[in-house]
């Protein structure tokens, strides 16, 4: 039961719009490392929230990830700093998707979800 992934609802604020997203929370090194590996599909308004113990610099890769994803990198206040699109990769020779900035959180969703919901860099995520 210890490795069970908890879920929570977050809100993304874009101007006057509020978009809700249900996320699985990856907040331990093992959960962060596994991420969405080996997941066959993701419901439209669901994703994964990565919570780091401290500010990090570096990227994500898509090793053994079967679905295309978009990822948003956030600062400590929940402001979206950068959004990148990532393609699945099976095997060991997978590219690193690096935002080239420091961040505290990352959110992975289905490819294009941020764009479809008119969410952009500079928007804010509320975690409560």
TrEMBL record:
Pfam families according to UniProt: DUF192
Cited InterPro entries: DUF192, Saro_0823-like_sf
Name of the featured protein: Exported protein
Protein source organism: Bacillus thermotolerans (Quasibacillus thermotolerans)
């Amino acid at each position: 039961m210890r490795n069970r992934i908890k879920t929570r609802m977050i809100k993304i604020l874009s101007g006057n719009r509020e978009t809700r997203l249900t996320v699985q929370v990856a907040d331990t090194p093992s959960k962060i490392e596994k991420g969405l590996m080996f997941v066959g599909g993701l419901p439209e308004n669901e994703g994964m929230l990565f919570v780091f113990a401290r500010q990090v610099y570096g990227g994500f890769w898509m090793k053994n990830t079967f679905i295309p994803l978009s990822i948003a990198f956030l600062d400590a206040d929940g402001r979206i700093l950068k959004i990148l699109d990532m393609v699945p990769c099976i095997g060991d020779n997978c590219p690193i998707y690096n935002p080239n900035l420091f961040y505290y959180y990352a959110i992975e969703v289905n490819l294009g979800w941020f764009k479809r919901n008119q969410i952009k860099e500079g928007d804010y995520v509320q975690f409560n």
